[in-house]
Design goal:
The protein contains one helix and 20 strands. A hairpin with a 5-residue loop joins β11 and β12.
């Protein structure tokens, strides 16, 4: 595996690992900003006044009575495209995850193993029941994750990442190593007094040297992201505005592509049900309008 490929993998997987460790893969009603005892949510992409039908369904989520996501199905032209299932232990931790691709009958599966403190210590990924790779985790005496080791099946020389925390228990530094124990990437974080992440500086000692800045609104929602290159020039900027229920109502994206600057503004308007969950959203961007409807079933 090349340095850049490993680095890209870790960049993508880092967010997945941290969210999975802390909140079960972001798969609760709270994470989904859903209110009430929701049983299922079906999302339809429709024309302005069209009624939801199976042919325009794009996603359906299923929740158990404890508010945990148990299944997520996606659709193409009304036909099932992929299906994901989540399995939990008595501590509400995800112990097994399955993802089925309908187009090629391929099933990907992840099994999680926990230690006596209910901390995830191993994760094995399968494709059609064949082991592909695995992640192993180590923790300090404060139960903070300090090391991630990645192994491709039959390769004992794995890549790894180490983590260092500040005095408030927040992740300060993450270092990625290749299979020869050479540093290939490093990121450091800064936080505000509310313990919110406000800056990440990432380098891979080759072409990548970026700084990403974050701000938040009074409700704690992240309302801006600004990425800068090593010359402090903007790579992209994202600005978000939310309603009082945490629904995104406006986004502004500015992305630098060569000498061009792409500027995309989108606005959203929602119709809510009596539980304050949105059941219709209208997204407007320039002259384009996209409409989605949600059919929510409650216990």
């Amino acid at each position: 595996m090349t340095k850049n490929k490993f680095y890209a993998l870790l960049m993508c997987f880092n967010a997945f690992i941290s969210s999975a460790q802390m909140s079960g893969l972001h798969n609760t009603l709270k994470d989904s900003k859903l209110y009430g005892k929701v049983k299922s949510v079906s999302i339809y992409s429709i024309k302005k006044d069209e009624n939801p039908e199976e042919s325009n369904k794009i996603l359906k989520d299923y929740f158990d009575e404890k508010g945990r996501l148990t299944q997520q199905d996606s659709y193409q032209n009304g036909n099932l495209d992929t299906s994901s299932k989540y399995y939990y232990d008595t501590n509400d931790s995800v112990v097994k995850y399955e993802h089925f691709y309908n187009s090629n009958n391929n099933t990907r599966k992840t099994i999680f193993f926990f230690n006596s403190k209910n901390l995830r210590e191993k994760e094995i990924n399968y494709s059609n029941d064949t082991i592909e790779d695995q992640f192993q985790y180590k923790y300090n005496e404060k139960n903070q994750q300090i090391e991630i080791a990645y192994f491709i099946y039959n390769n004992t020389l794995g890549n790894k990442s180490t983590k260092i925390y500040n005095s408030k228990g927040l992740l300060y530094k993450k270092t990625d190593f290749d299979d020869k124990n050479k540093i290939v990437a490093e990121s450091t974080n800064k936080y505000n007094l509310q313990k919110q992440l406000i800056e990440t500086h990432t380098v891979n000692f080759e072409e990548i040297d970026t700084k990403t800045l974050y701000t938040y609104d009074a409700m704690g929602n992240q309302n801006s992201t600004l990425a800068l290159d090593k010359n402090q020039q903007m790579i992209y900027r994202l600005d978000f505005t939310y309603d009082k229920y945490g629904n995104l109502i406006k986004s502004i994206q500015k992305i630098k592509v060569g000498t061009r600057l792409l500027d995309i503004t989108e606005s959203l308007v929602y119709t809510l049900d009596d539980k304050n969950n949105w059941i219709k959203s209208i997204r407007t961007s320039k002259n384009k309008i996209g409409t989605k409807k949600r059919v929510i079933e409650y216990y």
